[in-house]
Amino acid sequence: MSKYKKLELTWVGKDERPRLEPRILLSDSSMAYRAKDEAETNSVKNSLIFGDNLLALKALESGFSGKIKCVFIDPPYNTKSAFDHYDDGVEHSLWLSLIRDRLEILRNLLSGDGSVWIAIDDNEAHYLKVLCDEIFGRNCFVASVAWRSADSSNNDAKKFSLDHNYILIYSREPDWKTIPLDRTEAANAHYTNPDNDPRGPWFSGNLSSPSPRPNLRYTVRGPAGIDIQPPRNGWRWSEERMREMIQRKEIIFSKDGDRVIRKTYLADQGGLSPSVNGGAK
């Protein structure tokens, strides 16, 4: 059972839904391109679909439900602006209905390891977050990535210069994982081997328990006979495991004997997790 309570965002007209009949896609051979050695097929692989995107999604539903691994959408931000090809200023409740209808079909299209990435800005981002919690499940929320969308600040802004947009990421299933990135020289730079440890470069890792644990608050006696007090939350491991790590020299002591040092080895590290960095462009 999910630890999250069911949330629902309500708005005027939420119960009104478009009547969508099953659709099929019609190919325009005059617009098609195929390499000479590619067989003629009816596949929609690498296809550009022209038309209303809600109807196009409905057409894809019959053949692709549960098969799409990644979806990126850049819906209108509802900035109250008028652009050449569309009006970006619909009434808020209507905007919610329009995006809801499309997200529900997109969720059906996603595979078990699939995810959806939605570009948005401050105008609707926070309402969209609650709406996505309702459609995908709050436990399928992955991240809200802020990225810098302007090269310089707007000095004419009356309140704040908003120089960022967001990408909201949701998964189809709650146990979704990213693919680790390759390690970089910068990420490895703080690993050194000052004591010529045969296991290679290391750095002093965290020794504290992530949450207060009374049973992890014990003293550690160093080689000089000094009793070293635990961190505020207690040590990260049980007293028995601490002794084992000291014996294996994964835990060592400072030269004056009053500080515990944990060795975290570069050889034991995997790839890097993607970083949600608001300064990225």
What is the alpha-carbon Rg in Å?
27 Å
CATH fold-level label of the largest domain? Rossmann fold
Strand order of the largest sheet: 1-4-6-5
Number of helices: 5
Could you say how many structural domains there are in total? Answer: 2
User: Structural class, from helix and strand content?
Assistant: alpha+beta
Summarize the structure.
20% of the residues lie in helices and 19% in strands. It is α+β, with helices and mostly antiparallel strands and 281 residues long.
Please give a structural write-up.
The chain has helices spanning 53-64, 92-109, 125-136, 185-188, 239-247; strands at residues 68-73, 81-82, 87-88, 110-120, 141-148, 164-171, 202-205, 220-221, 227-228, 251-253, 260-265. It is α+β, with helices and mostly antiparallel strands. It starts with 52 loop residues before the first helix and ends in a 16-residue tail after the last strand. Helix 1 runs parallel beside helix 2. The protein has 2 domains: 48-171, 3-Layer(aba) Sandwich (Rossmann fold), CATH 3.40.50.150; 185-268, no CATH class.
Keywords:
single chain, 281 residues, Rossmann fold, 5 helices, elongated
Show the helix and strand layout.
Blueprint: H1 53-64, E1 68-73, E2 81-82, E3 87-88, H2 92-109, E4 110-120, H3 125-136, E5 141-148, E6 164-171, H4 185-188, E7 202-205, E8 220-221, E9 227-228, H5 239-247, E10 251-253, E11 260-265
Parallel strand pairs: 1-4
Antiparallel strand pairs: 2-3, 4-6, 5-6, 7-11, 8-9, 10-11
Helix pairs in contact: 1-2, 2-3
